[in-house]
Every structure is written in C-alpha cells, then in structure tokens.
Amino acid sequence: FLMQTSEMLRKICMRNLVRKYCRGLTAERKVQLQQKVVTSAVFSGKKEGYLESLSQPFLDTRLKENDLNPKVLQLIRGENIKYVTPVIKYDRNGFKARERLLVLTQSSAYVVEMAKIKQKIEYSTLKGISTSNLSDGIVVIHVPEDKQQKGDVILQCEHIFETVTKLCILANKQSLVKVVKGSLRFRVGSGKEGTMVFTVGPEPQVFKDKTGQLTVV
C-alpha cells in the first residue's frame, strides 16, 4: 500500500511540475519548443549534426523584411513574410553556384536574386523536400511538372535544420520531408531528371563530376 501511495504522489508531483513549467513558458519559448519537436520528428537519428543542433535556438528569421529589395517587397505585397535566409542555389543545368535569398511567406516559398523573383513555389503544389543523411546543408525542394516551374530547386543552407523545419511547418507538409542516403533524383525540367550523389571526404565540396552528376562531399 505504501508503494502504491508513493507512486501516486510521485506522479502527482511530476504533473504539477510539468504544469508549472508549461504555464511559465513565454510565447517565444513555446514556439521554439514546437519547432524543435518537428525537427526531432524529421531528423532525429537520420541526419548527421542533429544532436549538435539541439542546443542552438532557431531564429525567427536570418534577415529582416527591411533587408529585402523594395521591388521584391512590392512583388510579394499582401503576403505575410515569415522567414528569410541567404542560400546558395545550384543551377539545374551545369550546377553553377549562385547567391540567392530564400523567402518564406504564409503561402509560398520564393527564390530571390537581388530585385528579381527567380522562382515561386506555392506550398499547395509542393511535392517534397529532400536532404541527405550527412552533415551537408543541401536541401532539394521538389515541384510539380508544369509550365510555371523550371524544375526542382537545389539549395545549400547554412542553418539546414532551421530552414527545413520552417519550410515544412509553413507548408504543413512535414510528412513529405525525406532524408536520403547515397543519392537522390531531381527534376531538371521538360521531363528530364538529374542525379545528386552524397559522399564523405576530407573537406566539404559541391561540384559537377566527370559523369555530369552533382557530387556533394
């Protein structure tokens, strides 16, 4: 009987401590925890660097709305900008690296070059999000095969866990995130596909190999 009473008291005490902790959370801290839960569901035990990312709080955004070119702001006016981060975009043909911004609004993702919108992806049309199981920052945003889209978007992000988490939460497509091993296929456009290979080496690299594949080290 004493054992049962002790167990009941322990559970009551734990419940009260949890309730007290939850009530003491700021709105900002609550959002952080909710985002980290999604990150855990997507990446825990799947991608290298996840454990190291646990202690790093996510920022609301890496760049402020004021950092965007006024022409871009005018083009996406009426949409609530949620997150902006610098990225490296790799061309689908030739894989040339280009500096871009990834802008996430309430309804769409934009790949931006200075004062130009290079590609718009409405979340409702998003087909998938792919990353590798290694420590690189590559993410591929898969888009539908239609005339409005040039093909899948290949990006390199410094804050990969943060960026992918923000994207899949805003798009409400957590289940579409895939962490792949070895290689992945992406759509180039006009029915064509390309291959990206992930490997391990002494230093990080992203290059076009002799076979024409994009190799990520």
TrEMBL record:
Any one GO MF annotation of this record: cytoskeletal motor activity
GO cellular component terms, semicolon-separated: myosin complex
Residue runs in coiled coils: none
Domain TH1: 47-217
The protein's name in its UniProt record: MYO1H protein
Organism: Brachypodius melanocephalos (black-headed bulbul)
